[in-house]
Amino acid sequence: MPEILSQSQIDALLTNLGKGEPISPQESSAGGRRIKEYDFKSPKKFTKERLRTLESMHENLARSITSYFTSMLREYCEVSVLQIEEQRYFEYSNALPDIALVGLIDLNPLDPNISETTLTMDMSTTIGFFMIDRLLGGAGEGYNLDREFTDIEKTILAYVYEKFAHYVEEAWGTSIDAKASFRGLETNSRLLQVNAQEDIVVIVVLNAKIRNVTGKISICIPATSLEEMSDSFSSKYTRSTRKMDADKEKQRKQVIMNSIMHSDLELKARLHEFELGMHDVLQLQVGDIIPLNKNINSDIQVLVEDVPWFTAKLGKIKTRKAVKVNKFM
């Protein structure tokens, strides 16, 4: 025989249906309060404050990877933190596809009281194939592939993961002194034996968008190791360290500057601008002379990406036209 609902339970169901939120009779019987499930088998180990500190660290990592991808691939790129969650290791490993792109990064804290740990960093194979195509001179179109990576492709991607290890060290360095090193690359997810199946891990998911290609980069951190390390820092410690450590801040700025230095910019030297009617344009012939309302010895503008930056003098070197920069505008 079906359970008969009370009037208060019926009212609670109608109210939550209007909000688009399902509710069970058990929830309504608790005085209208929503009952939150708690899994005693997998208790949460980290407070929201610690997870926010972890999120801040990986936002720095996402910015570093964004700059690296943009300079390396010469493409628009955006990497951001999508989510951070705790789960069992078997849940993470079972979600990995058979053909994966997992890098192993050893994180060795300089504090002897904190144990060394290994982070696993999985990158979407779609991004991997896109990067390979671009780095080998392609247009970045052949990325929807369902095959194993070749030895040459693995070597190229291993170099990328070595850079990732450097950025991980830099991001974690704002909170704890540690050295990160790339251990190896695994493309068969079923061969990974980094943690026990029942171990609790923290998964940081980054969303990467390169041109029209979107994929995920997930970082798996053992909870026991993270507990050890997180005891040595807090969000307050993170802010004070970033403010006081001028050397690391200088290195971070230099990394950004090095990425910018490889960008290609278009320079134009503009002698003068004027308007000409359509009738006059149609009457132009080879050899016609157009007088400019400007002295030949006066300054001209030098534009960087169509933005005026300098004034310059017009001249020539041997048989080529040239401009000599005078000053910033």
Widest sheet: strand order?
1-5-6-3-2-4
Q: How many structural domains?
A: 3
Low-confidence stretches: 25-29, 235-242
User: Which H/E pattern describes the elements?
Assistant: HHHEHEEHHEEEHHHEHEEE
Using only C-alpha atoms, the radius of gyration works out to 29 Å
Main sheet? 6 strands, antiparallel
**Class derived from helix and strand content:** alpha+beta
How many strands appear in the DSSP assignment? Answer: 10
CATH topology of the largest domain: Chemotaxis protein chec
Global mean pLDDT: 80
- Count of alpha/pi helices: 10
What's the CATH H-level homologous superfamily of the largest domain? CheC-like
Shape: elongated
Q: Regarding CATH, which class of the largest domain?
A: Alpha Beta
DSSP helix fraction: 25-40%
What's the architecture of the largest domain in CATH terms?
3-Layer(aba) Sandwich
Strand content: 25-35%
Cα end-to-end separation: 85 Å
Description:
The chain has ten helices and ten strands. It has 329 residues and is of the alpha+beta class. It has three domains: 1-37, no CATH class; 48-261, Chemotaxis protein chec (3-Layer(aba) Sandwich); 267-328, Roll (Surface presentation of antigens (SPOA)), CATH 2.30.330. It has a six-stranded antiparallel beta sheet. Strands 7-8-9-10 form a four-stranded antiparallel beta sheet, with no helix packed on it. A hairpin with a 2-residue loop joins strand 9 (307-317) and strand 10. Helix 3 runs parallel beside helix 9. The radius of gyration is 29 Å and the shape is elongated. The protein starts with 6 loop residues before the first helix and ends with a strand. The relative contact order is 0.13.
